[in-house]
UniProtKB/TrEMBL annotation:
CDD domains referenced in this protein's UniProt entry, alphabetically: PRTases_typeI
Keywords attached to this entry: Cytoplasm, Glycosyltransferase, Magnesium, Metal-binding, Nucleotide-binding, Purine salvage, Transferase
Obligatory cofactor(s): Mg(2+)
Lineage top rank: taxon: Bacteria
Phosphoribosyltransferase domain sequence ranges: 14-159
Organism this protein belongs to: Desemzia incerta
GO cellular component terms, A-Z: cytosol
Lineage: Bacteria, Bacillati, Bacillota, Bacilli, Lactobacillales
The name this protein goes by in its record: Hypoxanthine phosphoribosyltransferase
SUPFAM superfamilies, alphabetized: PRTase-like
């Protein structure tokens, strides 16, 4: 699998160090707020797992799965809920955990939904932000790393469901797409 990687953009050490920093910041922000940490399946799982272990606060976790219709690498803009939360978000402090914000469509849809459901506060932490990909305006409250406008894989991010288990963020060799 590692043979398929052309270059590493964010190393395992960089991810782990930044995750500890973000965990400390979020611990201060959410002290005594019992946040509901919402992971967006499936890409957010490795980051959410490491990040919440770096947060020394009482919190709850829940998960949503949404799909944006489209090919493996280009989304169409339509978002559909595949798995909803089990938890009522009304009056809750919500921390959404994402692996990447690209067009911004996925999170824009989810945030509107949480506002409609009367969440008390909504914040976003994303491991990666790809600002050049933005189609709808959206800013995360906490960002791990900025990435260029390239298709990235690893640490949760897939290409046709593979490479999520890489411990770093990388770019695939061109022949993998052939
Ligand atoms: O800002 P956007 O352009 O909406 O892209 C970001 C979304 O795309 C990826 O999810 P994907 O739909 O590929 O699902 P997955 O996490 O299960 O791979 C990623 O995990 C984000 O949720
Ligand atoms: N794997 C992967 N999924 C994405 N979803 C939105 N942007 C990306 C990306 O660069 N890589």
């Amino acid at each position: 699998m590692q043979n398929d990687i052309e270059k590493i953009l964010v190393s395992e050490e960089e991810i782990q160090k930044r995750t500890q920093e973000l965990g400390a910041e979020l611990s201060a922000e959410y002290k005594d707020k019992n946040p509901l940490v919402v992971g967006i399946l499936k890409g957010a799982i490795p980051f959410l797992s490491d990040l919440t272990k770096a947060m020394d606060v009482k919190l709850e976790m829940d998960f949503m799965d949404v799909s944006s219709y489209g090919s493996a690498m280009v989304s169409s803009g339509e978002v559909k809920i595949l798995k909803d939360l089990d938890t009522n978000v009304e009056g809750r402090n919500i921390l959404i955990v994402e692996d990447i914000i690209d067009s911004g469509r996925t999170l824009s849809y989810i945030i509107d939904m949480f506002k409609y459901r009367k969440a008390k506060s909504i914040k976003i932490v994303t491991l990666l932000d790809k600002p050049e990909g933005r189609v709808v305006p959206l800013e995360a409250d906490y960002v791990g790393f900025l990435v260029p406008n390239e298709f990235v894989v690893g640490y949760g991010l897939d290409f046709i469901e593979h490479y999520r288990n890489l411990p770093y963020i990388g770019v695939l060799k061109p022949e993998i797409y052939e």
